[in-house]
Amino acid sequence: DADVTQTPRNRITKTGKRIMLECSQTKGHDRMYWYRQDPGLGLQLIYYSFDVKDINKGEISDGYSVSRQAQAKFSLSLESAIPNQTALYFCAARPEETQYFGPGTRLLVL
Amino acid sequence: AQSVSQHNHHVILSEAASLELGCNYSYGGTVNLFWYVQYPGQHLQLLLKYFSGDPLVKGIKGFEAEFIKSKFSFNLRKPSVQWSDTAEYFCAVLIYNTDKLIFGTGTRLQVFP
Prior knowledge:
The complex is a heterodimer.
Chain A: E1 4-7, E2 10-13, E3 19-25, E4 31-38, E5 42-51, E6 54-57, E7 65-70, E8 73-78, E9 87-94, E10 100-101, E11 105-109
Parallel strand pairs in A: 2-11
Antiparallel strand pairs in A: 1-3, 3-8, 4-5, 4-9, 5-6, 7-8, 9-10, 9-11
Chain B: E1 3-5, E2 10-14, E3 19-21, E4 24-26, E5 31-38, E6 44-50, E7 56-58, E8 64-68, E9 73-78, E10 87-95, E11 101-103, E12 107-112
Parallel strand pairs in B: 2-12
Antiparallel strand pairs in B: 1-4, 3-9, 5-6, 5-10, 7-8, 8-9, 10-11, 10-12
């Protein structure tokens, strides 16, 4: 397990607002990931990071940005939230070949 | 493009019935294979994984999966389901030596007592 935590667990925001989702892991793993989950679509990769200086775009990075402030912290930002960004967001960390997921943040954009 | 298919979108079973959930992937090279489970309102948890060796792998809670390389499949099985197995199940494929973990769209399993 990678002991991944996410805050907040639930968030409601309005269109056009900036919002940040936080992710932390306690085991010192280099690789961290952000996914969004939509009903019927599985998980789609937004961004991933191999270390503090290495950030990579995933499949659906448009409208999102990330920051790897430290090895343990990987934040996801929505600069100007829109309703179709309403989803469940998961952070994951990867020791070796297996990704372990955080509890998720449920985001509603009105 | 690589993809993962889970053909069963919604499965409804009675307790004690046997379960098999299909997973097929499209990639000709080496892969690592995973099944994750998501109980209602919870995060994804690793159920089992296959990297190499015996193609029949056993996971937690009595689940097992068989990797059939010739069929590009990694089907999940359980001989006798319980009500507590009600959840969504995701198959995922990691392209070897990459960070590309590709998820299927998930199968929702409902088990009735």
